[in-house]
Design brief:
InterPro entries: ArsR-like_HTH, LysR_HTH_N, LysR_subst-bd, WH-like_DNA-bd_sf, WH_DNA-bd_sf. This is LysR family transcriptional regulator. The protein has nine helices and eleven strands. Helix content is 42%, strand content 21%. Helix 1 packs across helix 3 and helix 5 packs across helix 9. The radius of gyration is 24 Å and the shape is elongated. Strands 3, 4, 5, 6, 9, 10 and 11 form a seven-stranded mixed sheet that branches. A two-stranded antiparallel ribbon has the order 1-2. A two-stranded parallel sheet has the order 7-8. It is of the alpha/beta class. The C terminus is likely disordered.
Length: 318
Amino acid sequence: MEIDPRRLRILHEVSRRGGVMKAAEALHLTPSAVSQQLAQLEREVGLALVDRSQRRATLTPAGRVLAAYAERIEEQLVEARQELNRFTERLSGPVTVAAFPTVIRHLLVSALRTLAVRHPRITPVIHELFGPVAVQELRLGGVDLVVTERDMSQPAASLPSMSRHRLYDDEYRIVAPPGWDAIPESVDDLAGLPWVAGVADQACGQALERLAQLHGFEPRRVHVIAEFPPTLGLVSAGHGVAIVPSLALLDVPPGEVVVTEIHGVGSRRIEALTRVSRTTSGEPDPVQGAVIDVLREAADEVAKRVGELSRPPEPRAG
């Protein structure tokens, strides 16, 4: 019995993705090509591996057994590549990173420039993914590293088989429209004001809920927006106040919004998630480690820029 390991990878992908269509999408193949490879694998082992009697193809008991072995082989190959990388001074290979827009703009772009100079043979691929979808892709092996956020007042979610790597703690700021006669100067001034609120399950949405509960007011959520550019646009146009992270303010032109002097709103933590290494050395994948290193360097530079933004302007000479 001669089994082509490349076809085992396809079987493994069908098993963990739950069907031929999703496996084909993940492997960048057509569904027809995946079906042909599965049929050839069935001829090689002499057993039916896929039950095609239903609308969606599922694995037979024999298919599930072979898929489990395929998963072990895939893990062993990943571990072998990681271990072999330790014997070369020049790291190489692809690495797929999932992140959300502000991190791509302010951390990843800078980090990739450094990575290209330091490790030119590493090939990064960026996917704009965030939230549970990104974590699921990491779990399934569709990406190698996820940059995510969480409100620091919330307990870190349990993520079995994953490692967390802190990158940056991003302070929240409350912004107001520049055209308002009275700019809020304290949390007490926020009661009754209209809000351009964040989505409830995202860090800024959680920060607003926590702030309101702590200070006993009910925020009037006139708009609920997920992304920061439209949030800042609505604030600039006078539609309400908003909580945004400092990172989102780096490219805002002076005068577009008023950054209030209300502090103590909290922070969000930006961190990288990777799958737990199963190598014999127990160390993280060197390529992923190199990406985390340059992300931390980019975060240090961003912290300096944010500090300059927070510094009050020097008085003009009279």
